[in-house]
Amino acid sequence: MTHPIDDLMSARDQQLRRRIGWLCQVMRAAALAYAAWVLAAMIWYWGSEDLVLRFFRTVVQVDLAGISAGRRLAGFAVHFAVWLFAAAACFSTWRLFTLYLRGEIFSLGAARWLRRIGLFGLISQLGDIASRPLISLIVSGNEAPGHRMVAVFFNPSDLLNVLFLTGFVALAHVFTVAAEIADEHSQII
Q1: What residue numbers bound the domain in which 79 lies?
Q2: Could you give the CA distance from residue 185 to residue 102 in angstroms, rounded to a whole number?
Q3: In whole angstroms, how far apart are CA 172 and each of 48, 98, 112, 144?
Q4: Domain count for the chain
Q5: Confidence of residue 5 (pLDDT cuts 50, 70, 90)
Q6: Residue 8 — pLDDT band, cuts 50, 70, 90?
Q7: Where are the alpha helices (DSSP H) in 102-139?
Q8: CA 129/CA 125 separation, integer angstroms
């Protein structure tokens, strides 16, 4: 025999799933698509000597004519290491919205996945910023001494991403407290 409160919570869970189920499915698909898209773009970019040369010529204003395939592969390897953290954030997003589909909104599990999104995303974003000088050294390594360069640059979106991802970590702490309070209340009832 079920308790009337259990029936009420079950009805609320079903109503919530009807309201956000489509959004959860979209977010799960978008997270996986984003990770695949970024990986494909990295492979395409680093696989094309012309694209690498054009980027460094226009953005960094350095001509790297004759960049070797080995240097492009090393640049790709650095980007791939950063991408692994972005992929972990995307996987965490997929897991979080999977929990939401199950009705686990203010649960400790959901709070943990939200925290992972923020942390993996922050590591990825900060890694991307930190990798820019390293990649510029890698690709300019065939230049004569004194002509090698270290490019340090920031985009306005860097700060925005850091702010949002830090907000996810903060929200995860709030959700953890909410889940603990909900658990305490369920034990009282």
Answers
A1: 22-188
A2: 20
A3: 40, 16, 7, 49
A4: 1
A5: very low
A6: very low
A7: 108-139
A8: 6
